[in-house]
Amino acid sequence: MLTKKNILFIFLFCVFYSFSQPHTKKYASTVQGDPFFTSVDFELVDNLIIVPVAIDNIKYRFLLDTGAINLFSSKLAYPYQIENLEEEKDLKFDIDNNNNTLIKMSRIVFGGVAFQNNIGVVREMHNNLFDCYQLDGILGSNFFGNVILQIDYPQRKIYITNVFKKLKIKSKSQRVKYIDNQRSPLIDITLQNNKRISKDQAIIDTGFNGIYEINIEKFSFFSRTNLLTQFISTDGISSTELINNKDKKTYHLVKVPTLKMDQFTLTNFYAKSTYDYSKIGNDLLKRGKLTIDFIAGQYFFETLELEDIQNKIPLLSPTFYQNKLIAGIIWDEELRTKIDFDDQIIKINHLPVNKKEPCELFSLKNENSTFTVLKKDRTTIEISSAKYTSF
Q1: Angle subtended at Cα 320 by Cα 319 and Cα 323, rounded to the nearest 5 degrees
Q2: CA gap 389, 197 in Å, rounded
Q3: What is the dihedral of CA 336, 339, 340, 346, to 10 degrees?
Q4: Does the keyword Signal apply (predicted)?
Q5: So where are the chain's domains?
Protein backbone atom coordinates (compact mmCIF):
# COMPACT_ATOMS: atom_id res chain seq x y z
CA MET A 1 0.00 0.00 0.00
CA LEU A 2 1.29 3.43 -0.94
CA THR A 3 1.36 5.79 1.99
CA LYS A 4 1.74 9.57 1.71
CA LYS A 5 5.34 9.14 2.82
CA ASN A 6 6.03 6.59 0.06
CA ILE A 7 4.34 8.75 -2.56
CA LEU A 8 6.42 11.75 -1.48
CA PHE A 9 9.59 9.65 -1.66
CA ILE A 10 8.77 8.41 -5.18
CA PHE A 11 7.94 11.94 -6.31
CA LEU A 12 11.20 13.35 -4.96
CA PHE A 13 13.16 10.47 -6.47
CA CYS A 14 11.64 11.09 -9.90
CA VAL A 15 12.35 14.82 -9.69
CA PHE A 16 15.95 14.18 -8.65
CA TYR A 17 16.41 11.53 -11.34
CA SER A 18 15.02 13.75 -14.09
CA PHE A 19 17.31 16.63 -13.14
CA SER A 20 20.36 14.39 -12.76
CA GLN A 21 20.05 12.82 -16.21
CA PRO A 22 21.56 14.49 -19.29
CA HIS A 23 18.77 16.23 -21.16
CA THR A 24 21.08 16.75 -24.10
CA LYS A 25 20.66 13.26 -25.57
CA LYS A 26 17.55 14.37 -27.42
CA TYR A 27 19.93 16.18 -29.80
CA ALA A 28 21.86 13.00 -30.58
CA SER A 29 21.34 11.19 -33.88
CA THR A 30 19.18 8.06 -33.67
CA VAL A 31 19.52 4.55 -35.09
CA GLN A 32 16.41 2.41 -35.44
CA GLY A 33 16.01 -1.30 -36.01
CA ASP A 34 17.77 -4.48 -34.92
CA PRO A 35 21.10 -4.71 -33.06
CA PHE A 36 23.99 -4.00 -35.41
CA PHE A 37 27.77 -4.18 -35.65
CA THR A 38 29.67 -2.70 -38.57
CA SER A 39 33.10 -1.38 -39.52
CA VAL A 40 34.41 1.52 -41.61
CA ASP A 41 37.89 2.14 -43.00
CA PHE A 42 39.26 5.63 -42.35
CA GLU A 43 42.14 7.82 -43.46
CA LEU A 44 44.46 9.39 -40.90
CA VAL A 45 45.76 12.53 -42.61
CA ASP A 46 47.95 14.91 -40.59
CA ASN A 47 46.54 13.20 -37.48
CA LEU A 48 42.94 13.91 -38.52
CA ILE A 49 40.32 11.19 -39.12
CA ILE A 50 38.59 11.36 -42.52
CA VAL A 51 35.61 9.04 -43.07
CA PRO A 52 33.16 8.29 -45.90
CA VAL A 53 29.42 8.87 -45.47
CA ALA A 54 26.50 8.58 -47.88
CA ILE A 55 23.50 10.86 -48.31
CA ASP A 56 20.95 9.77 -50.90
CA ASN A 57 23.50 7.22 -52.18
CA ILE A 58 26.07 9.95 -52.89
CA LYS A 59 29.42 9.60 -51.11
CA TYR A 60 30.95 12.48 -49.15
CA ARG A 61 34.08 13.05 -47.05
CA PHE A 62 33.60 14.04 -43.41
CA LEU A 63 35.94 14.80 -40.54
CA LEU A 64 35.25 12.70 -37.43
CA ASP A 65 35.48 15.20 -34.59
CA THR A 66 34.30 14.22 -31.11
CA GLY A 67 35.10 17.74 -29.90
CA ALA A 68 32.43 19.31 -32.12
CA ILE A 69 28.80 19.23 -33.16
CA ASN A 70 27.71 17.87 -36.56
CA LEU A 71 28.51 20.40 -39.24
CA PHE A 72 27.35 20.46 -42.87
CA SER A 73 28.49 22.58 -45.76
CA SER A 74 25.70 24.71 -47.17
CA LYS A 75 26.40 23.23 -50.60
CA LEU A 76 25.74 19.75 -49.21
CA ALA A 77 22.83 20.42 -46.86
CA TYR A 78 20.28 22.45 -48.75
CA PRO A 79 19.53 20.02 -51.62
CA TYR A 80 18.45 17.42 -49.06
CA GLN A 81 15.52 17.10 -46.71
CA ILE A 82 16.29 19.33 -43.75
CA GLU A 83 14.36 20.95 -40.93
CA ASN A 84 15.26 24.38 -39.62
CA LEU A 85 15.62 24.45 -35.82
CA GLU A 86 15.80 28.17 -35.14
CA GLU A 87 13.07 27.76 -32.51
CA GLU A 88 15.37 25.61 -30.32
CA LYS A 89 16.50 28.28 -27.86
CA ASP A 90 18.12 25.97 -25.29
CA LEU A 91 20.84 24.63 -27.55
CA LYS A 92 24.39 25.37 -26.43
CA PHE A 93 27.04 24.23 -28.84
CA ASP A 94 30.77 24.93 -28.66
CA ILE A 95 30.93 26.93 -31.87
CA ASP A 96 30.56 30.62 -32.59
CA ASN A 97 27.08 31.86 -33.45
CA ASN A 98 27.97 33.89 -36.53
CA ASN A 99 26.70 32.80 -39.94
CA ASN A 100 25.36 29.50 -38.60
CA THR A 101 21.99 27.87 -39.20
CA LEU A 102 20.91 24.95 -37.03
CA ILE A 103 19.15 22.17 -38.93
CA LYS A 104 18.06 18.56 -38.70
CA MET A 105 19.13 16.36 -41.63
CA SER A 106 16.84 13.36 -41.91
CA ARG A 107 19.23 10.55 -42.90
CA ILE A 108 22.99 9.92 -43.13
CA VAL A 109 24.43 6.46 -43.82
CA PHE A 110 27.71 5.61 -42.10
CA GLY A 111 29.14 2.11 -42.34
CA GLY A 112 25.91 0.88 -43.89
CA VAL A 113 23.92 2.08 -40.86
CA ALA A 114 21.26 4.76 -41.29
CA PHE A 115 21.54 7.56 -38.72
CA GLN A 116 18.42 9.72 -38.48
CA ASN A 117 17.50 13.08 -36.95
CA ASN A 118 21.00 14.45 -37.45
CA ILE A 119 21.12 17.87 -35.79
CA GLY A 120 23.96 20.12 -36.84
CA VAL A 121 25.14 23.50 -38.02
CA VAL A 122 25.15 24.60 -41.65
CA ARG A 123 27.75 27.12 -42.71
CA GLU A 124 29.95 28.13 -45.59
CA MET A 125 33.15 26.10 -45.74
CA HIS A 126 35.36 28.09 -48.04
CA ASN A 127 38.50 27.91 -45.93
CA ASN A 128 41.88 26.24 -45.98
CA LEU A 129 40.94 23.40 -43.64
CA PHE A 130 38.06 22.09 -45.74
CA ASP A 131 39.71 22.89 -49.06
CA CYS A 132 42.80 20.99 -47.98
CA TYR A 133 41.08 17.75 -47.05
CA GLN A 134 38.19 18.14 -49.52
CA LEU A 135 35.68 17.87 -46.70
CA ASP A 136 31.92 18.18 -46.94
CA GLY A 137 31.22 18.28 -43.22
CA ILE A 138 31.93 17.03 -39.71
CA LEU A 139 30.52 14.04 -37.85
CA GLY A 140 30.46 15.43 -34.32
CA SER A 141 30.03 13.65 -31.02
CA ASN A 142 26.25 14.15 -31.07
CA PHE A 143 26.17 11.95 -34.20
CA PHE A 144 27.33 9.00 -32.06
CA GLY A 145 25.18 9.81 -29.01
CA ASN A 146 23.16 6.57 -29.21
CA VAL A 147 25.87 4.09 -30.24
CA ILE A 148 29.24 2.71 -29.17
CA LEU A 149 32.16 4.06 -31.19
CA GLN A 150 35.50 2.28 -31.41
CA ILE A 151 38.49 3.75 -33.29
CA ASP A 152 41.34 1.32 -33.93
CA TYR A 153 44.08 3.72 -34.98
CA PRO A 154 46.82 1.16 -35.86
CA GLN A 155 44.39 -0.79 -38.08
CA ARG A 156 42.68 2.36 -39.48
CA LYS A 157 39.29 0.84 -38.63
CA ILE A 158 36.18 2.29 -37.00
CA TYR A 159 33.60 0.00 -35.42
CA ILE A 160 30.10 1.10 -34.45
CA THR A 161 27.51 -0.98 -32.64
CA ASN A 162 24.68 -0.81 -30.13
CA VAL A 163 25.68 -4.10 -28.46
CA PHE A 164 28.70 -3.70 -26.19
CA LYS A 165 29.73 -7.38 -26.05
CA LYS A 166 30.32 -7.37 -29.82
CA LEU A 167 33.57 -5.45 -29.20
CA LYS A 168 35.11 -8.01 -26.80
CA ILE A 169 36.94 -5.44 -24.70
CA LYS A 170 39.03 -6.87 -21.88
CA SER A 171 40.28 -3.72 -20.14
CA LYS A 172 38.50 -1.98 -17.27
CA SER A 173 36.02 0.77 -18.10
CA GLN A 174 36.51 4.44 -17.17
CA ARG A 175 33.64 6.86 -16.65
CA VAL A 176 32.92 9.64 -19.11
CA LYS A 177 30.80 12.79 -18.84
CA TYR A 178 29.35 14.84 -21.68
CA ILE A 179 29.48 18.55 -22.44
CA ASP A 180 26.19 20.30 -23.17
CA ASN A 181 24.23 19.34 -26.26
CA GLN A 182 27.08 18.38 -28.55
CA ARG A 183 27.86 15.37 -26.30
CA SER A 184 31.64 15.81 -26.37
CA PRO A 185 33.16 13.19 -24.03
CA LEU A 186 34.92 14.59 -20.96
CA ILE A 187 37.26 12.27 -19.03
CA ASP A 188 39.55 12.35 -16.01
CA ILE A 189 43.29 12.24 -16.64
CA THR A 190 46.17 12.28 -14.17
CA LEU A 191 49.20 14.59 -14.23
CA GLN A 192 52.24 13.71 -12.15
CA ASN A 193 55.58 15.31 -11.32
CA ASN A 194 57.59 13.02 -9.03
CA LYS A 195 55.36 12.65 -5.95
CA ARG A 196 52.98 15.48 -6.87
CA ILE A 197 49.80 14.12 -8.45
CA SER A 198 46.63 15.90 -9.57
CA LYS A 199 43.63 15.43 -11.86
CA ASP A 200 42.51 17.28 -14.97
CA GLN A 201 39.34 16.86 -17.01
CA ALA A 202 39.91 16.75 -20.76
CA ILE A 203 37.75 16.31 -23.84
CA ILE A 204 38.52 13.34 -26.05
CA ASP A 205 38.82 15.46 -29.18
CA THR A 206 39.44 13.55 -32.41
CA GLY A 207 39.33 16.85 -34.31
CA PHE A 208 42.51 17.97 -32.49
CA ASN A 209 45.68 16.65 -34.11
CA GLY A 210 47.98 17.35 -31.16
CA ILE A 211 48.72 15.42 -27.96
CA TYR A 212 47.24 17.50 -25.14
CA GLU A 213 46.19 21.08 -24.46
CA ILE A 214 45.64 22.30 -20.91
CA ASN A 215 42.89 24.64 -19.77
CA ILE A 216 44.32 28.01 -18.65
CA GLU A 217 42.76 27.85 -15.17
CA LYS A 218 44.06 24.33 -14.63
CA PHE A 219 47.50 25.47 -15.76
CA SER A 220 47.43 28.30 -13.21
CA PHE A 221 46.50 25.88 -10.43
CA PHE A 222 49.12 23.29 -11.42
CA SER A 223 51.87 25.91 -11.65
CA ARG A 224 50.96 27.39 -8.24
CA THR A 225 51.14 23.94 -6.66
CA ASN A 226 54.47 23.17 -8.40
CA LEU A 227 53.02 20.27 -10.34
CA LEU A 228 54.10 21.99 -13.57
CA THR A 229 57.32 23.95 -13.16
CA GLN A 230 58.88 24.25 -16.63
CA PHE A 231 56.99 26.56 -18.96
CA ILE A 232 57.24 29.51 -21.35
CA SER A 233 54.69 32.35 -21.26
CA THR A 234 54.02 34.84 -24.05
CA ASP A 235 51.25 36.89 -25.68
CA GLY A 236 49.84 35.89 -29.04
CA ILE A 237 46.87 34.70 -31.08
CA SER A 238 45.70 31.12 -31.50
CA SER A 239 42.67 30.26 -33.58
CA THR A 240 41.07 27.74 -35.90
CA GLU A 241 39.27 28.14 -39.18
CA LEU A 242 35.90 27.11 -37.68
CA ILE A 243 35.83 29.51 -34.76
CA ASN A 244 36.14 33.28 -34.83
CA ASN A 245 39.71 34.46 -34.37
CA LYS A 246 40.33 35.71 -30.88
CA ASP A 247 42.15 38.79 -29.60
CA LYS A 248 45.67 38.64 -28.22
CA LYS A 249 45.93 36.55 -25.05
CA THR A 250 48.63 35.06 -22.87
CA TYR A 251 49.60 31.47 -23.69
CA HIS A 252 51.88 29.01 -21.97
CA LEU A 253 53.99 26.17 -23.34
CA VAL A 254 54.49 23.73 -20.49
CA LYS A 255 56.52 20.58 -20.08
CA VAL A 256 54.34 17.72 -18.81
CA PRO A 257 56.46 15.19 -16.87
CA THR A 258 53.79 12.45 -16.81
CA LEU A 259 50.23 12.14 -18.13
CA LYS A 260 48.09 9.07 -17.46
CA MET A 261 44.94 8.21 -19.42
CA ASP A 262 43.31 4.94 -18.43
CA GLN A 263 46.22 2.43 -18.45
CA PHE A 264 48.38 4.53 -20.78
CA THR A 265 51.25 6.73 -19.57
CA LEU A 266 52.93 9.45 -21.62
CA THR A 267 56.04 11.26 -20.36
CA ASN A 268 58.21 14.29 -21.09
CA PHE A 269 56.31 16.29 -23.69
CA TYR A 270 55.31 19.93 -24.24
CA ALA A 271 51.69 21.11 -24.28
CA LYS A 272 50.09 24.49 -24.97
CA SER A 273 47.52 26.17 -22.76
CA THR A 274 44.02 26.87 -24.09
CA TYR A 275 41.11 29.06 -23.01
CA ASP A 276 38.76 26.19 -23.82
CA TYR A 277 38.44 22.83 -22.07
CA SER A 278 41.60 20.77 -21.75
CA LYS A 279 41.69 18.20 -24.54
CA ILE A 280 43.37 14.99 -25.65
CA GLY A 281 44.04 14.69 -29.39
CA ASN A 282 44.93 12.19 -32.06
CA ASP A 283 48.70 12.48 -31.59
CA LEU A 284 48.11 10.63 -28.31
CA LEU A 285 45.09 8.54 -29.32
CA LYS A 286 46.76 7.14 -32.45
CA ARG A 287 48.91 5.02 -30.16
CA GLY A 288 46.07 2.62 -29.39
CA LYS A 289 42.42 1.62 -29.66
CA LEU A 290 39.80 4.04 -28.31
CA THR A 291 36.26 3.00 -27.42
CA ILE A 292 33.60 5.52 -26.35
CA ASP A 293 30.36 3.98 -25.15
CA PHE A 294 27.95 6.88 -25.56
CA ILE A 295 25.08 4.65 -24.40
CA ALA A 296 26.50 3.65 -20.99
CA GLY A 297 28.79 6.65 -20.40
CA GLN A 298 32.13 4.86 -20.33
CA TYR A 299 35.33 4.68 -22.35
CA PHE A 300 38.32 2.37 -22.85
CA PHE A 301 41.80 3.05 -24.21
CA GLU A 302 43.83 -0.05 -25.04
CA THR A 303 47.49 0.55 -25.82
CA LEU A 304 51.05 0.18 -24.58
CA GLU A 305 51.61 1.12 -20.96
CA LEU A 306 54.37 3.75 -21.30
CA GLU A 307 55.79 6.02 -23.98
CA ASP A 308 58.42 8.74 -23.69
CA ILE A 309 57.86 11.56 -26.21
CA GLN A 310 60.67 14.12 -25.78
CA ASN A 311 59.14 16.52 -28.32
CA LYS A 312 60.89 19.81 -29.07
CA ILE A 313 59.99 23.39 -28.20
CA PRO A 314 58.75 25.07 -31.40
CA LEU A 315 59.99 28.51 -32.42
CA LEU A 316 56.46 29.71 -33.07
CA SER A 317 52.90 28.47 -33.64
CA PRO A 318 51.58 30.14 -36.83
CA THR A 319 47.87 30.79 -37.12
CA PHE A 320 45.33 32.32 -39.49
CA TYR A 321 44.11 35.80 -38.62
CA GLN A 322 41.93 38.02 -40.84
CA ASN A 323 42.65 35.78 -43.84
CA LYS A 324 46.41 36.01 -43.34
CA LEU A 325 48.97 33.58 -41.95
CA ILE A 326 50.73 35.26 -39.03
CA ALA A 327 53.37 34.30 -36.47
CA GLY A 328 50.59 33.69 -33.92
CA ILE A 329 52.47 32.64 -30.79
CA ILE A 330 56.25 33.14 -30.57
CA TRP A 331 57.79 30.77 -28.05
CA ASP A 332 61.46 31.60 -28.63
CA GLU A 333 62.57 34.46 -26.38
CA GLU A 334 65.21 35.82 -28.77
CA LEU A 335 62.81 35.68 -31.72
CA ARG A 336 60.27 37.78 -29.77
CA THR A 337 62.79 40.64 -29.87
CA LYS A 338 62.83 40.46 -33.68
CA ILE A 339 59.19 39.98 -34.74
CA ASP A 340 55.68 40.52 -33.33
CA PHE A 341 52.96 37.90 -32.98
CA ASP A 342 50.80 39.60 -35.63
CA ASP A 343 53.56 39.95 -38.25
CA GLN A 344 52.58 38.24 -41.49
CA ILE A 345 54.27 35.12 -42.83
CA ILE A 346 54.59 35.74 -46.57
CA LYS A 347 56.76 32.80 -47.63
CA ILE A 348 57.32 29.22 -46.50
CA ASN A 349 60.47 27.54 -47.74
CA HIS A 350 60.96 30.52 -50.10
CA LEU A 351 57.60 30.01 -51.84
CA PRO A 352 54.87 32.68 -51.39
CA VAL A 353 52.11 31.56 -49.05
CA ASN A 354 49.43 32.34 -51.64
CA LYS A 355 51.14 29.86 -53.97
CA LYS A 356 51.02 27.10 -51.40
CA GLU A 357 48.43 24.36 -51.47
CA PRO A 358 46.11 24.54 -48.42
CA CYS A 359 47.32 21.17 -47.12
CA GLU A 360 50.89 22.42 -46.95
CA LEU A 361 49.82 25.11 -44.48
CA PHE A 362 48.20 22.56 -42.17
CA SER A 363 51.15 20.19 -42.06
CA LEU A 364 53.84 22.70 -41.16
CA LYS A 365 56.70 21.44 -39.04
CA ASN A 366 58.83 24.16 -37.46
CA GLU A 367 61.99 22.08 -37.58
CA ASN A 368 61.58 21.44 -41.32
CA SER A 369 60.36 24.87 -42.45
CA THR A 370 61.83 28.27 -43.21
CA PHE A 371 59.46 31.21 -42.72
CA THR A 372 59.83 34.63 -44.33
CA VAL A 373 58.09 37.18 -42.10
CA LEU A 374 57.07 40.67 -43.18
CA LYS A 375 57.58 43.10 -40.30
CA LYS A 376 55.62 46.29 -39.71
CA ASP A 377 58.50 48.42 -40.98
CA ARG A 378 58.21 46.50 -44.30
CA THR A 379 61.52 44.70 -43.80
CA THR A 380 61.61 40.92 -43.78
CA ILE A 381 63.27 38.31 -41.62
CA GLU A 382 63.88 34.68 -42.49
CA ILE A 383 63.30 32.20 -39.69
CA SER A 384 64.42 28.61 -39.49
CA SER A 385 65.21 26.26 -36.63
CA ALA A 386 68.90 27.09 -37.05
CA LYS A 387 69.04 30.87 -37.47
CA TYR A 388 67.28 34.19 -37.98
CA THR A 389 68.39 36.29 -40.97
CA SER A 390 67.16 39.87 -41.51
CA PHE A 391 66.86 41.48 -44.95
Answers
A1: 165
A2: 44
A3: -140
A4: yes
A5: 24-164, 166-308, 316-390
